[in-house]
Amino acid sequence: MSQFFQIHPDNPQARLIKQAVEIIRKGGVVVYPTDSSYALGCQIGDKTAIERVGRLRQLDPKHNFTLICCDLSQLGLFAKIDTATFRLLKAHVPGPYTFILNATREVPRLLMHPKRRTIGLRVPQNPILKALLEELGEPLMSVSLILPGDSEPMSDPFEIRQRLEKQVDLIIDGGNGTLKASTVINLADGEPEVVRVGCGDPSPFMVEA
Question: What is the pTM of this model?
């Protein structure tokens, strides 16, 4: 049976944040709010927890996992970023975007795309998630909470509890989320490519023909 924390969306309770991070560090799989939909995640180096997330989402081996980072400098530890890419990122983070970038050696091999050696990276605005990341001191491994058979992410914490309370270790209720995941932008090849349109406005990344 999972734990269920109701955390204030604007002023997260420090006690609950600390308890949530303890669960993550002990190998827990956690549901938490983001700028867009709810997400599912765990500690980045925990092979058992990552495999649990993969089974829960029924992900194929080529799925691009995402690391949610507290800021741009932390993101820079896990991705190879040139000057032009840095400027582009700086203009759009924090926000509801996931950027696919070439991974550095800091990224566990289990999380990289097996052929392209890429990783998704994101810097959120959500106060609960920012507090979690600051307390944890490292990125969270993350995927959108879109369960097998569903076409949209889950957004109601109580519905999430009904469906997942026996399959995850913690559900954080930060209020209702949106029915859209983040907008995904591939920057691994230099030119931006919009892979998925979600909450973030894709127009700054559209290349005119």
Answer: 0.91
